[in-house]
Amino acid sequence: MPNTHPRLVIAGTHSGAGKTSVVTAALAALRARGVPLRPFKVGPDYIDPAFHAHVTGTPSRNLDSWLLDAPVLRGLFARAANGGLSLIEGVMGLFDGKGSGHEGSTAHVAEILDAPVVLVISAQGLSRSAAAMVAGYASFHPRVRVGGVIVNRVKSARQYGLIRDSVEKACAVPCLGYLPENPDFALQSRHLGLVPSQEVAELDAVVAHLALAAGETIDLDGLMALADGAPPLPAGELPRVEGSFPVRIGVARDSAFSFYYQDNFDLLQTLGAELVFFSPMRDRSLPDALHGLYLGGGFPEVFAQALAANGPMRSAIREAVSGGLPVYAECGGMAYLCVSLADAAGTVFPMAGVFPHRAVMTGKLQRFGYAEAEFCRETVLGPAGTRVRTHEFHYSRIEPEDGTEGCYRMRKDGVTPWRGGLASGNVLAAYPHIHFYSNPSLPRNFLARCGAFKAGRP
Description:
The record marks 433 as: Increases nucleophilicity of active site Cys. This protein is an alpha/beta fold. The chain has helices at residues 19-32, 47-56, 70-81, 106-113, 129-139, 157-171, 203-217, 220-228, 262-270, 304-309, 311-322, 332-337, 441-454; strands at 7-12, 37-42, 61-63, 85-93, 117-122, 146-154, 175-180, 189-190, 193-194, 248-252, 257-259, 274-278, 292-295, 297-298, 327-330, 340-342, 348-350, 358-361, 367-375, 387-394, 396-399, 408-412, 415-420, 422-424, 427-430. It has a seven-stranded parallel beta sheet with strand order 3-2-4-1-5-6-7, with helices on both faces. A six-stranded mixed beta sheet has the order 12-10-13-15-25-24. The protein has a four-stranded mixed beta sheet with strand order 17-16-18-21. The chain is globular and about 70 Å long. The N and C termini lie far apart (56 Å).
């Protein structure tokens, strides 16, 4: 009987080992063969999934074992993975998770899904030492199975042969090929990770180079055999979410705002919402007949000039908010709702002006990592006391901070609790990113508020 959920995790020894290049190459080469693909990304990342989607034409979904309970994670995976070969790109190094623990790591997701792992190692400065590295990763956790190795940034076929022979002799783990060192394969980075796919010049040419290399130097048949050999997927369970809300939600989506979980969109649509995408950079007005707005994160600081130049859109959002339109904004979306945004050079650009605060880019990371949020007051997502697991990652800060009583009480291990978030009327804006399946009552509450607005109730 064929495997209904062929799957494998492609993990790295560390950040920068080349996971995204290898995954992009493998996806492109397998798609060229006509293999139906289902891409996934471990952790709270929005940029890598966009590369997956660009290559495969299929949405890539996040699998986060700290934000999501294991049965829910398995349920979401099973629903999206059915009918294709699933390639799951890891995050950071294989065993790096929340703090020094297992939770949230690529290894934890591999364990939850009972998926074999292909370990990506960098060949830079290595030959036989690669065997010691692989041996350590392969034996570190008894329920995480390293089933293969791909070597990245290889200088020559001879170097790969030395590494392959050393690894296979010492570890009994097969090497499944390599990618050569080639500047044409490089994916550029900036302050929040890789430069997003929609900004990469000649991305299709880069993908074509990677696909060609993968077809020549990666054992694609071996990858598929390893994925097909995964055991039956453990049972999952999705939470029962009741309610039907036939409302139209405007979703800001362009180069400035692209940080969304695909599962969030899916859940909103399951609850009856129609999602209407628009561009705060290019569109001169909001879509017609909206009952709510969803403004995700992204890079408004990079595109601040274009956002500021679109005065009609900024005015339309202010007017919609003053008319009571429910709004939920995360991170970069919150910056856009401030009165101004100062970029890294100190240039100040006018924004939508819903809040009298200023968003200011700084030269260092302000907050990074997982944290739990508790609502200090009623918001469009729920009543006071509501709790949800979240993730933050930002270089900006909101000013003034003094005298601003945040609507979230944030808690993180080893860190003094803090307050964050802005709320006024039907608007909630905050730095933390929320996966709606962490607490499905939140999107339901938001859509209920949008339904009340549609019905003319405050």
